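forwarding from the other thread:

> can someone predict this with 1-deoxynojirimycin?

sure thing
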Amino acid sequence: MRLTYTSDVWWKNAVVYCLDVETFKDGNDDGVGDFRGLTQQIDYLAGLGVTCLWLMPFFPTPNKDDGYDITDFYSVDPRLGTLGDFVEFMRTAHDRGLRVIADLVVNHTSDKHPWFKEARSSKDSPLRDWYVWSDTPEPDNPDQVVFPDKEDSIWEYDEGSGQYYLHSFYRHQPDLNVANPAVRDEIARVLGFWMELGLSGFRVDAVPFLIENVDPKLAEPHEFLADLRAFMTRRMGGSILLGEVNVAYKDLVAYFGDGLGDQITMCFDFIGMQKAWLSLARCDAGALSEALRERPKPPKDSQWAVFLRNHDELTLDKLTEDERQEIFQAFGPSEDMQIFGRGLRRRLPTMLGGDLRRIKMAYSLLFSLPGTPVIFYGEEIGLGENLKAEGRMAVRVPMQWSRDGGFSRVKPARAVPEGAFGPERVNVADQKRDTGSLLRWFQLLIERYRECPELAWGESTVLDTGEPAVFAHRCDADGATVVVAHNLSDTAREAELRLDGLGGYRLTDLLVDGTTEVPDGGVVRITMEPHGCRWLRASHPGVAPEDASVKSR
Ligand code: NOJ
């Protein structure tokens, strides 16, 4: 396929790296990460091969929800640096060819935001209608409460002004009223501000909540998303919205902008993620195969964002109770590993018992799935968690750069992982020198992923393998094909792949040395080592695999 497409529509096979400035690297010796520290590590990120950084919220905040409670959308939290530090970071990131996006948290503000302080000061406040008020809210439905450990309602009575305000999340996060045109204008202004400073887009927090309180009688809720996207496109053609949209596939297509692709550019595949974990727990490809077969095709130029872990709980909310329990038993059996009755507060390597072969297989699977991979900082070195930290904070630990931690010259403000996952055992410096390390594996996977744009751009087909433990799929684009197979089990397996149209072709393994010929009938048997991973490029004998995409030349 024509590689020039991948620069215009850059997000479609980007590698997105999510990090929190606060936990990445401390540049001023106060135990808290900051922009100066992050900027010092830019070459590490460029060397890893990621193409886009997603910064978690770095704005001023009382920090009652790790920065997802903002008091000023136009500034940098002083603990993390200044706007000047931000601009220097952006300049350095761009110099190394990295794009940057940031969290856009506009479903709500902090209750300490000047807008809310003003709005609650009186029913007649000019900003009253910037939030959502009611004299008689609907009775509570427990399913609507996102954080059941702290809240039992989504409405909070405001003594001072005598009405209830809506808060989809914590009570200190009042929901903005995005049906109000003045609020919409202000949100666009926020986007414009940060794009002017170089951001290539935003990870949009809590998208379904954001539009749910738009009264459909007054305005079409999805119009707001389309308006935002249009605004961004006017300002910067290649900018994107990456949406947190954890809803069923059938409801999700509307967020891309039904067929038009004029709303959220990329949506996280929460269903695929949960089914992937079910497959990993069962060592059986069935659940993941089914999800990918059911997954709707995004509109042209839109894309799925695929992931295995993020900064929140590993939510299993879209599975049945039995399926959830299966995953709990396999990967987080004790109660303190679980949270909200629906998820796990562990990182992937600890869930997989530190089994390097299995961990490598899980990430190989992730990078090969059709979509744009999003990784959470530290996944590349197998960073663990610290369950002593409260709730979801368990997985938001300081990055481990060297045996003594290397995050800060003083004691980090946050608890670090301990034991087998402590910095003396898991760190960047050691893994850089070890060719068999997870870090080196990530570099290889990212390199191969970028060399195989078919994976992200192509038509993907899940293959029957005749072996339940082997998940396989093929991706075809412009006459080029990549076939991928993963053995989810810890014993060797054989799989049989029917590769229509590839009879007489040669499959070249892109991860290790070796080739396999596809017999004329197109049915090939491949052997898979325990937790084995195979990325195979199909080429016609006589044509070098790197030239397989003949039409692209
Ligand atoms: C989703 C974010 O990922 C989560 O961390 C946050 O607590 C809620 N939205 C509220 O902003």
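Residues 459 and 476 are 5 Å apart (CA to CA). thats all i got for now
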